[in-house]
Design brief:
By secondary structure, the chain is α/β, with parallel strands linked by helices. It is globular, with a radius of gyration of 24 Å. The longest helix has 17 residues, at about 125-140. Bound molecules: 5'-O-[(S)-ethoxy(hydroxy)phosphoryl]adenosine (WTA). Belongs to the ATP-dependent AMP-binding enzyme family.
Length: about 650
Amino acid sequence: MEHNTRAAFIRQMLKDERTIEPSPEFSYKALVKSRQDYDELYRRSIDEPEAFWGQMARETLDWYRPWDAVEEYDFDSDKPFVRYFRGAELNASYNCLDRHLDGPRRNKAALIWQGEPSEEVEVYTYQRLHREVSKAANVLKGLGVKKGDRVVLYLPMIPQLAIAMLACARIGAIHCVVFSGLSAEALKDRIVDSGASVVVTANYGYRSGKILQLKGICDKALEGCPQVKSCVVVRRIEKRTVMEAERDLWWDDLMAGASPVCEPERMESNDPLFVLYTSGSTAKPKGIVHGTGGYLLYATLTMKYVFDLKETDIYWCTADVGWITGHSYLVYGPLANGATSLMFEGVPSYPKHDRFWEVVEKFGVNILYTAPTAVRAMMKEGERWVNGHDISSLRLLGSVGEPITSKAWMWYYSAIGQGRCPIADTWWQTETGGVMITSLPGAVDMKPGSAALPFFGVAPQVLRPDGTEAAPNEGGTLVVSRPWPGMMLGVYQNEAAFKDVYFPVPGRYLTGDGAYRDEDGYFWITGRIDDVINVSGHRIGTAEVESALVSYLQVAEAAVVGCPHPVKGEGIYAYVTVKEGTVINDDLRAKLVGHVRESIGPIATPDVIHFTAALPKTRSGKIMRRILRKIAAQETEDLCDVSTLSEPSVVRDLIRETKRLS
Ligand code: WTA
């Protein structure tokens, strides 16, 4: 019921929607030129998935050994599973590097790195990247890392992060990248859960002109990880760094002595390539496991089609490699396609609000892939920041991470795309490995705010609570009814979670998002329907923030919900009750905020801490989050059904307090 009203609300907001056709010039040169071409490819991918994916796999990747079966899965049983290309062998780093070395791509820029300080730029040709990755692979081997071992990478946006990922892939080690904005405690949890024995970090990092103490954070995390034998440290900034003898080693020292020759390991298609942690409804994030063959094929193919990739494109994905978008569309997708991928260490607003446009102009960026939160932030600062720059090299724009409102879409389209560049809205998730629903540029008409149509092989459906399919324009739960090659293989060390979280409804993969499909078959994503908040395109589990809050001595109870936020999309609103005798003041509020930042990281900073005497509960003692969400959003007129509450006066108090807080 609740997301139905939300869907209706969003639909109403978008009444001013228009359908925008891609320009004939773009379509003419596009990989998929028309709706008809898309329909044909899509039909085939659904009607004959084995033939379709088999052909794509042969054409797209290099294999050492062919498969015994293309697609095997079971979504119905107690032990759901999915497997692509069983028995086939390949290596992801070989596909991203070695195979490009025979022809003219050898000297093409694979990775262009722009540091936060403007003057810091590095270019890695495919040849150079191959050499560095091979050396790093030998370094890891030298530290005793073997096939199947986990390596945690806690690095900022520097080339060594991509190099270390590919080095792991080369020797069959499983990388586990931890976003460099996460705290020591969050890092420790991930190191422990993954069972890694080697961690790679940097001594420091830059963020908006400030220096991040990455090695210090890592040291703190490692206090709780006795199994970690080696910590390799990249010298990002020349600055005194405390190194622990026996455990800590400089990346540069190890690389200097490493051989540039390293034979890639032959991996079975379903051997894990990486584990990436993401938030869900539980207090602890889950390690999403992706395989090698299926994932790489899906990342490579979606990259090629969704971004209509051309050989000479300069492609820029602004996401951090610490998230799935950076994995699939900054590292694996672009490199497997032999493209030029730009990696940017900075932020859109530093030193000034024109940083993105300065970078676009400097490198002649053709494709820009960013998030609605960045678009909103720039829109707020105004078009004048764009005007001083020549950004006419842009030919295609992408959006990912959260629903983009039609207003932000139109600004992106007109101010940045100058009415010329199609926008590929891309709906997908850490779990899906690659783009699932998109407005395939050049091929399909765009509707601002709609992620549009499914990618090849993807079969999304909108379901009613009773499991039947929703009618056009009727809101429901977004599920996927058959597998696709990029699909996660499981949850690391937690077989039960795969079934419980993703297959509570037998036969369907549950996305956790709400959606509706309009009369033209276009999908409109209405946001998460589980206890996940989408803050600036980052997933934050409400349970994670609550558990951080209640671990503070004076806190009795906490309930966390999302609230509307003009730039971040959603903000974090925390209701807190304190223990007897605690003095409530701004100091306590600041301490609590600091405590959450320490426990998770700055991305989980609560926007509002609402101290209250009691939380609304049902008679059976369950916190009524639906009501708390409404109060946080100040939508209190229709708080109709409070009849199940044990003490209705609690709600009145909360409403009064919220008015005072805002
Ligand atoms: C949301 C990021 C609407 C959605 C790739 C999803 C989106 C979650 C879009 C996954 C989009 C992502 N339109 N919502 N184009 N893209 N989302 O795992 O709620 O960090 O479930 O993966 O982001 O976030 P994740």
